[in-house]
Amino acid sequence: MKIKHIDHIGIAVRSIDEGKKFYTDILGLEMEKTEVIEEQKVKTGFFPITDSEIELLESTEPDGPVAKYIESRGEGVQHIAFRVENIKEALRELKEKGVRLIDQEPRKGAGGARIAFIHPKETHGVLVELCERE
Ligand code: ZN
After folding, report:
1. pLDDT of 134 above 90
2. What are the tens digits of pLDDT across the range 20-73?
3. Angle 100-59-108 from CA coordinates, rounded to 5°
4. Is the pTM of this model over 0.70?
5. Contact 131/55 with Cβ under 8 angstroms?
6. How far is the CA of 56 from the centre of ligand 1 (A)?
7. With b meaning 16 or more CB within 10 Å and e meaning fewer, what string describes 18-47?
8. How far does the centroid of ligand 1 lie from the alpha carbon of residue 100, in Å?
9. Span from the CA of 66 to the centroid of ligand 1 (angstroms)
C-alpha cells in the first residue's frame, strides 16, 4: 500500500464551539467547515494545515463513539488518519497480512473521503484511519 501523508489528526472535544477557540484565537488557524456525519453520530470541524488537517470531533448523540471515548479517556487525540492512494487495495493487503480491521470495506467519511479504521489492538493503542480522497 502507498501511504501519501498524514491526512488529519482527529481530536475528540465536548464542544467544537469551545474547542475551536484554541486553534483559531491562539494558533491563528481557520476552521474551514463543519459537517455532520449522521451514521457516526459526530460533527466535525476541519482546520487545514498544508497537506494535513486538524479534525475536531463532537458527538451528536450521548451514545456516539466520540461521546464514549471522552467518557472513558477524556478529551484528546482520538485517531490519526493516513492518506492512501487506493483504500480498497490497502484493505485487501491488510486482510492478507491478518491485520484486524474495524471496517472490512471503506465507508463514507467527512469531506467525501472514503475511510476505514484499523483495530487499535494492531497499532499499539492508536486508532488508525485510512483515508482516500479524489
Ligand atoms: Zn478522521
Report:
1. no
2. 999 999 999 999 989 999 989 999 999 999 999 999 999 999 999 999 999 999
3. 50
4. yes
5. no
6. 9
7. ebbeebeeeeebebeeeeebeebbbbbbbb
8. 18
9. 11
The per-residue DSSP string of 85-108 comes to S-HHHHHHHHHHTT--BS-SS-EE
Centre a 10 Å sphere on the Cβ of residue 12 and count the other Cβ atoms it contains.
24
Site of grid cell 453520530 = 41
Pairing of strands 42-49, 33-37: antiparallel
Cell numbers representing residue 6 in the block: 498524514
User: Which residue(s) pair with 45 in the sheet?
Assistant: 34, 56
Res. 107: pLDDT tops 90: yes
CB 75 within 8 A of CB 11: yes
- Which CATH number describes the domain made up of 3-132? 3.10.180.10
State the Cα–Cα distance between residues 53 and 45, nearest whole angstrom. Answer: 10
